[in-house]
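BACKBONE STRUCTURE TOKENS:
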Amino acid sequence: MVWLKQCHCAEMGSKRDLSGSITTPDVKLNLGGEFIKESTATTFLRQRGYGWLLEVEDDDPEDNKPLLEELDIDLKDIYYKIRCVLMPMPSLGFNRQVVRDNPDFWGPLAVVLFFSMISLYGQFKVVSWIITIWIFGSLTIFLLARVLGGEVAYGQVLGVIGYSLLPLIVIAPVLLVVGSFEVVSTLIKLFGVFWAAYSAASLLVGEEFKTKKPLLIYPIFLLYIYFLSLYTGV
């Protein structure tokens, strides 16, 4: 009897030792110094070799640049070039060569588009025509300058010709006021064309042309006369 009781007690003890509970281990991720409990689905994917689906790429600081910087638009630089074109006198102290030596595309394009919008009193069909004249007229000036021995790039000519339309934009509202006075209107038109041509020629026609300057100044002058004719419709 004593032996049976000992066996029974031993069986009960063994049963107690085998009892327990099965729990899933807590898997934690260290993200930025903070431990976050991983879900069952995440653990399942990692165990099956699909953990790469859960990876998140870090944001690249270079991808968060402002829009103007992405498009390479410097508003301060454009404003300075506008002042250089509108005030071409050397005595004013502007470094006007920056318009030629540091050309950009968006500033001249904005000037040309604005001139197109005001041309022919809002007839927007001339916009494409003015842009075409700007591109191919600048190309003609560039080719002529290279033939004459000038060291100038097409981008420089394109920028200078585009920015130098600003004087014609300035005289546009004046022509609306004095349009009924033919003599005054003609004088203002001539002033605007000379102003624009002088701004462009003083930047493009350097000392390397020497005695050949008139051969380049004359087509520049004719180009701005043509631009003005697109505005006035004559």
About this structure: Residues 96-232 form one domain. The CA atoms of residues 79 and 230 lie 26 Å apart. The longest strand covers residues 28-31. The radius of gyration is 38 Å.
